[in-house]
């Protein structure tokens, strides 16, 4: 008797994720490079978020740490503790690390200033230094969401991307980034997360979590 091997097919949604992430990253990059100043529409979005009440800061500060380098490692550890899936854990580790360090490389290439260097009357809730585009926090958060979401129960998947969106929102609110910084970071994260799922053989439906 010949036993057929199971093939892990690449889902169309994952192809869309790679193409979409690439387009978002490239598109936001082009807009940033072409416009030497902050576009009016981007400034308006930033000011609307940045001027929200200070009472939100304690609420968003915690979730925002999930996009940091240390926070991403915590997510990786929790992923292994909850799922016991080594391959999924390594994918989360690789995807988030590449997203973080790729964001550093893009920052060096683009060299766009932080909001406080480009705009006036910025409410600085975090003393971020260096350059802005792209947001490393947003890249890491969306990389982790892209890696983990297909491998958790379907009902929880929107929550993973919702949490990543909170991280991106918090980076604007904190005054660390402009909207295009966060959008570019999200695109980079989706691209990194999906590529790492493919690299570790988690294409298709991935490895579902055993829920007892």
Distance between termini? 34 Å
What oligomeric state best describes the polypeptide chains here?
A: single chain
Strand content: under 5%
- Biggest pleated sheet: none
- Which structural class best describes the helix and strand composition? mainly alpha
Q: Using DSSP, what is the number of strands?
A: 0
Rg computed from alpha carbons, rounded to a whole number of angstroms: 18 Å
- How many distinct domains? 1
* Uncertain runs: 1-7, 206-212
What is the percent of helical residues?
A: 55-70%
Whole-number mean pLDDT: 88
User: Any idea what the shape is?
Assistant: globular
- The helix count comes to 9
Question: What order do the helices and strands come in, and which of them pair?
Answer:
Elements (H helix, E strand, L loop, with lengths): L11 H23 L5 H11 L6 H8 L4 H15 L2 H25 L4 H4 L17 H13 L8 H17 L5 H21 L13
Helix pairs in contact: 1-9, 3-8, 4-5, 4-7, 5-7, 5-9, 7-8, 7-9, 8-9
List keywords for this structure.
212 residues; mainly alpha; 9 helices; 65% helix; globular; disordered N terminus; disordered C terminus
Describe the structure.
The protein has 212 residues and is mostly helical. It has one domain (12-199). Helix content is 65%, strand content 0%.
């Amino acid at each position: 008797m010949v036993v057929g091997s199971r093939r892990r097919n690449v889902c169309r949604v994952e192809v869309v994720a790679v193409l979409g992430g690439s387009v978002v990253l490239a598109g936001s990059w082009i807009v940033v490079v072409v416009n030497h100043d902050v576009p009016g529409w981007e400034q308006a979005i930033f000011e609307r978020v940045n001027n929200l009440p200070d009472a939100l800061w304690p609420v968003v500060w915690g979730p925002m740490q999930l996009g940091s380098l240390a926070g991403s490692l915590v997510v990786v550890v929790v992923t292994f503790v909850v799922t016991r899936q080594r391959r999924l854990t390594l994918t989360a580790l690789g995807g988030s690390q590449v997203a973080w360090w790729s964001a550093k490389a893009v920052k060096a290439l683009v060299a766009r200033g932080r909001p406080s260097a480009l705009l006036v009357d910025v409410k600085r809730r975090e003393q971020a230094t260096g350059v802005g585009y792209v947001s490393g926090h947003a890249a890491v958060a969306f990389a982790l969401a892209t890696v983990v979401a297909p491998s958790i129960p379907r009902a929880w998947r929107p929550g993973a991307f919702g949490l990543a969106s909170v991280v991106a929102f918090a980076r604007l609110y904190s005054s660390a980034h402009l909207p295009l910084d966060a959008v570019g970071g999200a695109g980079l994260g989706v691209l990194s997360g999906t590529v790492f799922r493919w690299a570790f053989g988690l294409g298709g439906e991935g490895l579902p979590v055993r829920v007892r």
